Amino acid sequence: METRTRRDFLKTGAAGAAAASVLGFPHVARAQTKLTFGLWDHWVPGANDVLKGIVTDWGKGNRVDITIDFITSIGNKLQLTGAAESRAGAGHDIIAFSTWDGTFYKDKLEPMSDVAEALIKKYGPFNENATYLSKQDGRWVTLPSPIGSHTYPHETRMDYFKQHAGVDVQDIFPADVKKRDKKKVDGWDWKAFLAVAKKVNAAGFPIGASIAENTDSNDWLGPLFASHGSFPMDNKGNITIDSPATLEVIEYLRELTQHMPKDIYGWDDASNNRWLISGKGSTIFNPPSAWAVAKRDQPAVAAQVWHHDVPRGPKGRYRGSLPFTWGIWKFSKEKKVAKDLLLFLSDRETQWKLITASQGYDFPQIMSFQDHPVWKEIGPPVGGQYNYPVRGDEKLIVAGWPAKPEFGAQVYSKWLLPTMVGKVTSGGTKPQDAVKWAAGELEGYKRG
Amino acid sequence: MRLGPNGTVLDAAAPARALPARARWRRRLRSRAAIGLLMCLPLVALIGGLVAYPFFYSIYLSMLNKRETAFIGLDNFRFLMTRDVFWQVVQTSFVFTGLAVFWKAVLGFTLALVIHTVPTGGQRIWRGLSLIPWVMPLALSSLGWWWIYEPTHSALNWLLVLIGISPKPWLSDPYWAKVAVILVNVWYGTPFFMITYLAGLKSIPAELFESSAIDGASGLQRLRHITLPMLKSIIAITMLFSTIVTLATFDIVRVLTRGGPRQSTHMFGTYAFELGIASGDVPLGAAVSLFMFPILAVSAFFILRGIRRSTV
Amino acid sequence: MIRTKRARRALTLLVCYGVIAGFVVFFLFPPYWMAITSFKTNQEIESLEGIPLIIQHGATLRHYRDLFAKTDFLLYFMNSVLVTVPVVFFSMVISVLAAYALSRLGFAGAGVIGTGVFLVYLVPDSLLFIPLFKIIGALGLLNSKWSLVLVYPTLIVPFCTWLLIGYFASIPKELDEAALVDGAGHLQMLVLIFLPVAVPGLIAATIFAFTVSWSGFLYPLAFIFSSGEQVLTTGTVTSLIKGDVYHWGGLMAGALLASLPPVLLYVFLMDYYISGLTAGSTKG
User: Fold this and answer.
1) How many CB atoms lie within 10 A of CB A336?
2) Mean pLDDT along residues A120-129
3) Cβ contact B141–C259 (<8 Å)
4) SS3 state of residue A288
5) Buried b (16+ CB within 10 A) or exposed e, C93-118
6) Residue whose C-alpha is closest to residue A318's, from A162, A184, A128, A167
7) Can you tell me the ipTM of this complex?
8) pLDDT tens for each residue of B127-180
């Protein structure tokens, strides 16, 4: 009977998840169900509470007793929790993963295809990057989650750019996609970026982006290499890093880093935020978290911050993306209830509430949800976050793409790209030797 | 009911035929060996179950493949030998341990000597203040150091600029990051050296110094001919113990650099954590951490020899 | 002659105090910087103006208030207490029993056990955490603070046993012979005669046990994940850091408060602490 109810719901797909669940279980016959949910600990103040409220209300309406654990991603806690639970065969019913992590456990996770396909039918597709990370061997092993998912656009001090480099990012990337001038947008490429970097540095306000062991580094270097056609591995398992394109980007970075602060090799995920907030930096690649903190502590800085598209390369324009996903363990005894909850959380109305609660930080993976008004309205400056969702020709990727997940995940988690680049730009290694080193590392990733 | 000599209950109503056996049992219990073993049992169980067994289990783990499904002998060790990063870890571990222990010993000795020289009344307060770094939980004080080194707001760089030295890329340059982690280790460990050396200094009979003073020996001569020889064994033992603890360093590196930049500050412990826990390759992580053992065993050999010598 | 001698003594003292002052500044700068930061407003922490070493724009207790009102700090504190109390208790019981046996009952296996205790130093926590991760997992204790109660004694018992052996060995043998003649058992003797005499040693060992348990970082980092089970060290280092924004004021406030119990204990019991610390080296 349970499965029939599920199928019925998925077929109609219309009556909210809550209703379906209630319909499936007559009140009298149903005992209180217990569900545990391991979630990413959100940094935006209040976001956790809103989510908790939404989930608890749903639980009350459906006679489900839900426990939420907020697990921080600092120190790999969230990652370690997933690893430990898969090993122990016990733990939360639903657990959140970031980027590649869900792919490790594809055989230990309950397939999500029914939920994902129902959502696609109702709201249209997930973005390609989310699909790539969640859909393994033809089935959805995890469900893309909006909570904590973010991308890495430019977060720019528009006054510095205008004053010291003569570039008006508000003009190139206005808060209305229809007003974009294609020529100006196409002109924003890595060459133009280098020219700006030189000028703002000369004026004493360098650009800042880390080349170190952290996700921020992956999320601007991955796209930079990709936009020149350089990828560590292809999707068949061939090592493709030793290419002219790779050397070209390394040479480019050798020049660019001359105009960046020397500390970038020791930065963590928070350093670029502080860099911008302190007023020293003119641009960083980051979700709007630096802006949000500046709004609280240094409002004058925040009012000058504009989010916009990253530079284009000869082979396209790529923006870094760090999506979160949800997985349901096969060992869970409440798979159906868990799926009902995730369906409800993926509902447009719920997701919009969550996006609002995160002040626009959470980036929806279902493409049609990008029309949320928050990014048009939030400010100051009003419209500063308009370009946080992808409005133009950017393609969202995760560093390591398009390799097979078991290898791509290692490119990401072992910091292959920042290490390779840093060896040259900070360590003085010859570019060719650094590329050889990276190829050797990639060979090591194949160890079973 | 009455109490026997050992607090055991002597029950008059016990069946007669059981008496000889019980008496024998009691005698056995009262024998020193039995009681001694019984009292050591919790200790033996603890160390056997949670130190010895995991150690051997670790050797077994290090010989499994990544998924822990097949026995692959020494392949993990062979694989590590081919990795640049691993050799970097070996190098960092030795450099870190060598330099940190050396500086802790030198600074600890200097401090002990100067505290020993000032009037006894004030020694207590200086000794007390100096021990604070050793008392604070290291993970938490490392967090404070992290903030001292933080690139944009670095208090240390601010001070350097103040005295006319250019700011240093703490934590972002492999060289300076090593300096940074060693500095924290020296900060944390110097008090321990100071306190053991100070205890050693206090145990040197004052007459030795007095007679040498009459002979007209200078301060440096006294240091060389009396103090150092008298403290030789304490200095050696403290340094070797510190070698063990320093080689096993985890907290400082994990909190300050996480092994970066470019894996240049990883030690055996943090690299094993990165591989075994964070990347889920338990066997490879076990293999890395096992490399510590032979190094520690050699140190132990010298410690034991040192202790034996000094007690003879 | 006397004057030059006195002058030389004065000069020596001056140099000594100079060196000591340098060391004290070095030792106390980090806690000072942490304290200063914890009382600054966010604006002042993030600003690059002025002198960072002093509070220029008014001190605030906000970070401390937020620590208790808005974070799980108190929960971590309770967890640390819940772990530390049984760890100290069990460690002391195990150490006292073993130290008595090893120092007084010269039985056949004593030497082997003594050497075994020493060899534990050769397998530090950074070597054992990987197999222990698997063992704790098999016991179903992963992500539980009680796993720490199991593993922390291994870090404490060897040193405490060693320390107490030293104290017990200094108790004159005539005392226990007299007691044995009176018909006392070994347990009675341990409790009635040894423990009272060895009080300073027991205090030193207890402080050591407390400090190790309170400061432990690697094991909770490897074995515990969810916020509710976190202890102070890992809770402060991981959970108080939010996303890619660090609230340095709050972090430093948390780190300082979490460091306080061992520091306070030490301030009040410094002499025991030091006697424990140096027991091994002076007897060696």
Assistant:
1) 19
2) 94
3) yes
4) coil
5) ebbbbbbbbbbbbebeebeebbebbb
6) A128
7) 0.92
8) 889 999 999 999 999 999 999 998 778 889 999 999 999 888 898 889 999 999
Chain B closest-CA separation from residue A448 CA (Å): 6
Residue of B nearest to C236 (CA): B140
Looking at the complex, does the CB of residue B67 fall below 8 Å from at least one CB of chain A?
yes
C85 contacts C149 by C-beta, under 8 angstroms = no
Does C215 reach chain A within 8 Å, measured CB to CB? no
Q: Does A72 touch chain C (CB under 8 A)?
A: yes
Q: Which residues contact A211 (CB under 8 A, 6 or more apart)?
A: A217, A221, A253, A257, A264, A265, A267, A418, A421, A422, A425, A426
Q: How many CB atoms lie within 10 A of CB B208?
A: 14
Tell me the percentage of chain B whose pLDDT exceeds 70: 87
CA distances from B120 to B117, B209, B231, C92, C110 (A): 8, 16, 20, 34, 41
Region of poorest pLDDT, from A296-300, B13-17, B297-301, C209-213: B13-17
In chain B the domains, ranked by start, together with CATH numbers, are 17-75 (no CATH), 83-311 (1.10.3720.10)
Domain C72-283 superfamily per CATH: MetI-like (1.10.3720.10)
Q: State mean pLDDT over C5-12.
A: 86
CATH match for A151-321+377-445 among 3.40.190.10, 3.40.50.720, 3.30.360.10, 3.30.70.1050: 3.40.190.10
The answer to whether residue A240 neighbours chain C at the CB level (below 8 Å) is no
* Distance in angstroms (rounded) separating the CA atoms of residues B44 and C121: 15
CB contact under 8 A, A289 and C245: yes
Quote the minimal CA–CA distance from B13 to chain C in Å: 23
Cα(A263)–Cα(A260) distance, integer angstroms? 9
For residue C112, give the chain B residue with the closest CA.
Answer: B44
Least Cα distance to A278 among C56, B166, C43 occurs for C43
Q: Scanning every residue of chain C, which has its alpha carbon at the shortest distance from the alpha carbon of A288?
A: C244
- What average pLDDT does range B246-263 have in this prediction? 91
Q: Model's pTM, two decimal places? A: 0.84
Subunits adjacent to chain A (3 or more Cβ pairs under 8 Å): B, C
Given a contact cutoff of 8 angstroms between Cβ atoms, the answer to whether A172 and A387 are in contact is no
Encoded tokens for C209: 């046990």
Distance in angstroms (rounded) separating the CA atoms of residues C101 and A388: 70
